[in-house]
Amino acid sequence: MRTTDISIDRHELGGLAPLLLKLAGASLVAGVAGIALMATVGGRGLDRILQSWLVGFTFFLNLSLGALFFVLLHHLTRAGWSVVVRRLAEGMAALFPLLALLAVPIVLWLPRLYRWAEPGVVVHDPILAGKAGWLDPTFFTIRLGVYLLIWSVLGLYLFSRSVRQDATGDPRLTVTMEKRSAPGMVLFALAVNFCAFDLLMSLDPHWFSTIFGVYLFAGSVVVFFAVLPHLTHWLQHHEELLHTVTVEHFHDMGKMLFAFVVFWAYIAFSQYMLIWYANLPEETEWFLRRQSGQWVWFSLFLAIGHFVIPFILLLPRSSKRKIHRLLLVSAWMVLLHWVDIYWIVMPELSPGRVPLDPLDLFVMLTMAGAYGTAWVLLLRRRSLVPARDPRLAESLAFENA
Amino acid sequence: MSTTVMDRRVREEGAVWGLLAEFTDAAELIEAARKVRDAGYTRWDSFAPFAVHGLDTAMGIHKTVLPRLVLLGGAAGCLSGILLQWWTNAVDYPFLISGKPLFGWPAAVPIAFELTILFAAFAALFGMLGLNGLPRLHHPLFTSERFRRVTTDRFFIAIEADDPRFDSGETRRFLTQLGAAVVEEVRD
């Protein structure tokens, strides 16, 4: 059996915090400056900026959703292995108030993204008239607020109790977190589904797919388990933090990434095959748009890049245990998750043409900067490991059979 | 004289199968396994009532080919699923269903997927059994009364007489040195 003495390991950001804040700040400034430049000199209109904004917002929303799912699942299953990386996830899962702030532009200029939000559109369209009660800008805003409120409460609750345990060491906190995670998971699942319907599916208000929320959820867990090994490794590499995390934990992150890559493909294909089989015009239009013009190649790239390549690369045990190989695949998956969101959003707003633009990059830089800053500020004075979690010893000694 | 007793007598007079060493806890077992490995024995095994972490490395067990067998099984399943559907639907008995192509690949995926899983699972199960030399109805170790406690509270190392380094006296002394509570001879 292997034991690690964590008292000799530093597990606070400490001197790394200013560096991280500088990096995040630079990303934020570069992003905002880039957007401003594209808007003025580049002549991109508000519509185009909002489209990129929706993609970027969904990307970071999914990252936090994946993190929240991981923390909830950890408590629900009384997981042992994952204690050493849980605090990093708790930090991401507590950032929903920031995401609420980032959602403001979307709500503010709703009709520029969602055609059902334009006055008069719903009434004159017989299909949309049947959905008039749901497709209402005020109701949409309230709903989005409720989803973000549910996630904020869950994320901040789990973060604050976990941090409190660092001080008190009270094992009863673990028990309450486990108990509250059960209804929490139900609320999480409902909110994710409805949010996917509202935020992304309603870009084409005629179209419907009951599995769409699960599709987005699968992607959110993929992006989380793609980011987590990078974050952990970066913290280990600089300032020798987190030496409590070993190859065994990376192996498990790799397994989770692999599992959810396959789950994503399963859900994506189920959605596609049922619609292909039934061949009903009101359902096929959504895929038809993604099989027309330049989007054909984009769709193929997504299918191969988001499933075939990572499936083959992550299949052998060694690619999950050789950390540099795992980091390579997970970096690829971070990119492909962005491609996935782009593929959901953009064909609705730019049919036939893939509108890749530097603007997309600048929006991502802006979001990453804001997100990173908030994460560092939240964890700056905290332990990066739940130091007095009753299952920490189990996690430290964890070995894959 | 009943046949069972006669069988046993015959067995007791059989050739020496190997030596069985008994240990009282898992840590002792791991330590002893490491030393047996380092002494260069090749035909030997450890036995414990539960999975002991670190025993694999202590015994120096090298990688199994099983994952490759499972991959081959999965690939064979996928291929046969596709060929089966292509041949039956598009070649042997072409039948147009709701205007779909005779061989529409999306429709073929579920069955190809299921056969991939099925064949991979078969490869895993039967490959595991085959590599372990199972099923077998009897094992010389079952003649040892002492060995029965391996399912409750005792740990064992057995070195087979077939091992090139096996020497009845030398190996017995070696196992006693490792801290075995008891070392006994097992006959076929």
In short:
The complex is a heterodimer of chains A (401) and B (188). With 401 residues, chain A is mainly α.
Q: Compute the number of strand runs of chain B.
A: 4
- Uncertain segments of chain A of ≥5 residues (pLDDT<50)? none
What proportion strand of chain A?
under 5%
Radius of gyration of chain B: 25 Å
Radius of gyration of chain A: 21 Å
Helix content of chain A: over 70%
Question: Which features does this protein show?
Answer:
heterodimer, A: 401 residues, mainly alpha, 18 helices, B: 188 residues, alpha+beta, four-stranded antiparallel beta sheet, 6 helices, 13% strand
SSE diagram, text form:
The complex is a heterodimer of chains A (about 400) and B (about 190).
Chain A lengths: L15 H25 L5 H31 L6 H11 L2 H7 L1 H5 L1 H4 L7 H4 L1 H4 L7 H32 L3 H28 L12 H26 L9 H32 L2 H10 L4 H20 L3 H4 L1 H27 L8 H22 L12 H5 L5
Helix pairs in contact in A: 1-17, 2-3, 2-9, 2-10, 2-11, 2-16, 2-17, 3-9, 4-9, 9-10, 10-11, 11-12, 11-16, 12-14, 14-16
Chain B lengths: L2 H10 L3 E8 L2 H13 L5 E4 L7 H5 L6 H27 L12 H27 L23 E6 L7 H10 L4 E6 L1
Antiparallel strand pairs in B: 1-3, 1-4, 2-3
Task: Describe the 3D structure.
The complex is a heterodimer of chains A (401) and B (188). Chain A is 74% helix and 0% strand. Chain A has one domain. In chain A, helix 2 (46-76) crosses helix 9, helix 2 packs across helix 16 and helix 9 (137-168) runs antiparallel to helix 10. Chain A has helices at 16-40, 46-76, 83-93, 96-102, 104-108, 110-113, 121-124, 126-129, 137-168, 172-199, 212-237, 247-278, 281-290, 295-314, 318-321, 323-349, 358-379, 392-396. Chain A has 401 residues and is mostly helical. Chain A starts with 15 loop residues before the first helix and ends in a 5-residue tail after the last helix. Chain A is globular. Chain B has two domains: 16-63 and 140-187, 2-Layer Sandwich (Alpha-Beta Plaits), CATH 3.30.70; 67-131, no CATH class. The interface between A and B is medium-sized, with 12 and 13 residues.
